[in-house]
Amino acid sequence: MKALSLAIDAHHALTPELREQIVQNVRARLQDPPYRLLSPEHFRTLAMLDTAGHPVVSLYLELTPERRVGRAWQSAFSALTHQVFQTMDEAVRNSVNADLQDIQRALDDQLPELGRGAAFFACRERGIWRQIALPIPLPDRIQIGPRPYLRPLLRCWGRSDRMLVALLSREQSRFFVSHLGTVEEIYRVKGQRIRGMLTDRVPRDRRDALANQLMKDEAKALASMTEVIGRELETSHFLLCAPPDMNAAFRAHLSKESLSRLGMFEANVHASPTEIGAAAAAVQEQLKVREERGLVDQLREASPVAVSTGVQETLDCLSEGRVLTLVADDSYAADGTHCRQCGCLFETTQLSKCPACGETDLEPIDDLVEAALQQALERRAQVVFIRDPARRLALAEKAPLQALLRY
Ligand SMILES: [Zn+2]
Q: What is the CATH number of domain 50-147?
């Protein structure tokens, strides 16, 4: 999809109506098929879906370069669907088959240009249809159940994995969202045609002042747009590339909060998303490491009542809804136990009854972290993955799963 574009100039001010339109456009863009990158709100909506029994098909397909050649993805798709039909009764099979045909048709129509794979969530009966481009490769998988199967996606849901990239210039400004190395253009703003406006009727000595004022007005509107889009996409940082005079005027109108999460980089304003991703990569990495370091220090230095620093303690706080930010060592993997009755998660696999509610309706789980991430999502907690090796070691002094608490 092409980036949305608009003009902000002396004839088109950034009014409250235009601002609302930008919000609506960004939202619509994220909902719209074909393939969208995943926004957090989009993700939460998926997590809340429950069809009350109707089967939803969740399908993950890796799209390596080899699989993109011809229709090579098709044999992997057939293998997945074959496997699922073997364990299914007649009625469910018919409904699932219709959904799988829809998915196959969508793949036939178009593979996502971006990313390393695709995920589908479909239930024709309930009008559910989502197709999502995946920024990282996830293993092929198909799952049928009353709720979308989101666990594989949770590993790419870290807060600092999503950043807003703004490229400003007098002729045009462009906004991108960068998610785990995939960069997508979402907005393009045409600048002032200053030369055209400064005719001979404007006295020569007034021209510079007027041009400067126009640039400042534009920088103010762009700063305001940055705040709106960043909030909508829940990005953790801003990456900015701007000529010096616009840069200063733009920064003057950013909130303190945004300024503290700003990084600078250099790129050509006409560059492709891939080139912009490459140009911004180093700064992005620095910002991520800085955030990881900040969080690990915060966990270490906070008052003991404001943090949980043991795995089981963190799981308990999660199910009580007390977690503000869940901090997870990206490489941590462990088995665990889930209580079907009260929803609590346990680090130990040797339980005969639930320590929280006393029921015996327990199930073993093969990935405790994914189960914890799902709870974090449902309870609107933020998630930060610690990926830098030195920070992972520092986190491991206490536990690979910790949290900053709301109360
Ligand atoms: Zn229980």
A: 3.30.960.10
